[in-house]
Write a structure and sequence with these properties.
Organism: Streptomyces malaysiensis
CATH topology of the largest domain: OB fold (Dihydrolipoamide Acetyltransferase, E2P)
Order of helices and strands: HHEEHHEHEEEEE
Oligomer: single chain
Number of strands: 8
Protein name: DUF1980 domain-containing protein
Keywords: Membrane, Transmembrane, Transmembrane helix
InterPro entries: DUF1980 (IPR015402), DUF1980_C (IPR048447), UPF0703_membrane_permease (IPR052955)
Distance between the termini: 54 Å
CATH architecture of the largest domain: Beta Barrel
Number of domains: 2
Largest sheet: 5 strands, mixed, barrel
Strand order of the largest sheet: 4-5-6-8-7
Structural class: alpha+beta
Helix content: 25-40%
Pfam family, one: DUF1980_C
Strand content: 15-25%
């Protein structure tokens, strides 16, 4: 039985990795887009190892014992001949990836962290502003990362009087407050960092709903210090489909960053 568990586990894991990385975009719920080739290679390798093991042991992977030993249970939850029965639980993550891919991280994770901006940018040696002026357009689409950085650290106040557009998922706060949020990853979902912008002026849509909000900067705290926090007075809220890559907090076009 132990060989069955090992061989089938390799095959299921390999097929699961290929399913989420080669046939679908589900891998983007767990890792960055650039890791796709590594996931595909890992899936192929696992399937190859499982196939070699299956061919070596013969089908259905159980060879009869030739030493006269008999399988028996010792009363402690495992068989002397086949290893611990709990090994079957290893199939759970493999089958979950294959048949029931967990959703991307959302409001449950974001609500565990306080709203905070990225670290203060390094000073410019040339004397140029760290935050260049926003393009002279009506509504400026921005990433939550860029908006948060400007709202907290931009002492030139380039956001003042400008109408911006942000996209993210809804995270409920305390006492009826809510946030537009994004989770940004460096490698995988395990290192996700939260970006949250508090919203003023509208009731909250359902938690985890993806929305695009339009509004103006709501100054909170002293800009240039840790007391400041990103917030927005909104004039419009629109429900939008969840993006293919939920951790990619970038905007193409004017105001992107």
């Amino acid at each position: 039985m132990k060989r069955n568990v090992q061989v089938l586990l390799l095959l299921f894991l390999g097929v699961g990795l290929l399913h989420i990385s080669l046939l679908t975009d589900l891998y983007l719920r767990y890792v960055r887009e650039g890791l796709r080739p590594a996931l595909i290679a890992s899936g192929v390798l696992l399937i190859a190892l499982g196939a070699v093991s299956a061919a070596r042991d013969g089908f259905p992977f159980n060879r009869p014992r030739t030493d006269g030993a008999q399988d028996h249970d010792d009363g402690h939850g495992h068989s002397h001949a086949g290893g611990p029965k709990v090994a079957w639980l290893l199939y759970v993550p493999a089958l979950t990836i294959l048949f029931l891919a967990p959703p991307a991280l959302g409001s449950y994770t974001a609500s565990r962290d306080e709203a905070k901006a990225p670290k203060a940018p390094s000073s410019s040696s040339s004397g140029d502003s760290l935050f260049p002026a926003l393009p002279d357009t009506g509504v400026v689409p921005m990433s939550l990362n860029d908006f948060s950085s400007r709202a907290v650290w931009d002492t030139d106040r380039t956001l003042k009087g400008r109408t911006v557009r942000l996209t993210g998922f809804v995270t409920p706060g305390r006492d009826g407050t809510w946030y537009v949020s994004r989770l940004v990853i460096s490698c995988c979902a395990a290192d996700a960092q939260v970006r949250k912008v508090r919203v003023h002026g509208a009731s909250a849509p359902p938690a985890d709903a993806w929305v695009t909000v339009t509004g103006t900067w709501h100054p909170t705290g002293k800009v240039g210090t840790d007391d400041a926090s990103p917030a927005l007075d909104i004039t419009a809220v629109r429900r939008v489909p969840a993006p293919k890559d939920p951790y990619h907090d970038m905007v193409t076009g004017p105001g992107g960053g």
